[in-house]
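Quick log. Single chain, no ligands specified.
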Amino acid sequence: MTGNVPPVAPHSALRATLGGKYYADPEVFAAEQERIFENMWFCAVRSSDLAVPGKFKKVQVGRESVLLVRGRDGLLRAFLNVCRHRGAQLCTESEGEVKRTLRCPYHSWTYGLDGKLVAAPNIGTLTDGAGAPIDRYRYGLVPVALTEWLGYAWVCLSDTPPPFEDVMAEATKTLGDADAINRYGIGGLDVGHRVVYDVAANWKLIVENFMECYHCSSIHPELVDVLPEFARGVAAQANIGLGAEFGSEVAGFTVDGGAGFDRLPGITDEQDRRYFAITAKPAVFINLVPDHAIFHRMYPIAVNRTVVECDWLYAGDVIGSDRDMSRSVELFHRVNVQDFGACERTQPAMSSRAYRDGGVLVPAEHHLAEFHDWVVSRLSVAV
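-> predicted structure:
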């Protein structure tokens, strides 16, 4: 054996993946931060986590620290987490609550919850270049575009954010019906459980894993028991408008296939007993079943590290009744652990000479090539 892999013939069913550098090169990751995460809509936080005026959360978006805070007027706003005076990070805690203002711990420049500069030492003596009193909005916090969808706050650092309608349209196209996602009422559901996973893998490996099911029969026995068609290796996203059907003996989307909860009020008969999965680029996965939704947000931290925050969302009467959600949560928690373990086993090989030119996609994974093309197109001349 020479160790050389023969080239893939043009007529072969195998297709090439991205080369290993796309998953292991810090320069590629830096380019992704700039051209993907800092230029697209990024899902930052569940809006209900910041329900009270003064509640804030710090989120890393690309290379920027972004501060989301609920104003006294009830509006949710986002700002760069940078004091306009000397650039100190305004909030160092990951989350918290203030009464009325945000105060820089360095020189005490203080901002209202709407971002306006409201106080600073000797502020009455400060003037602009023309000798006039300083404009407190001009020297306020730098705003970041924010919109809300499905009960989450999405932010965009770009000076010209792309239309959010495009995000919604692309994300929901696999449902085959633009209104299908609205029937789940995700924005009105409550967080019944949350797990934060720290995954030692590149964010694209996690996206690719979510988008394909070629691995399902190998590492997801519990999921395949509930969704037997996944044993064939065809992802739910590939069946436009159909999703994946529960097994005939399966009562609910639970770890043992037992009954879950009443289906959500807006669910149609066509959506009942089916699992749907959608991806909202660049870093959100949404799993839909009749009685709840599972919402993943990815935070790429480094070329080989990604934090994934996963919410299990249920109707208020399920959570309010203290009903046992453990069997419902456990199914996809196991799927997550299995998936992230696979990604972590893959990450070290991305630096290997064996993966210098990438790997291959089998026919069931060919749709991943569209994701690869999208990544390359976003990076353009950056790599």
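The domain at 42-156 is CATH 2.102.10.10 (Rieske Iron-sulfur Protein).
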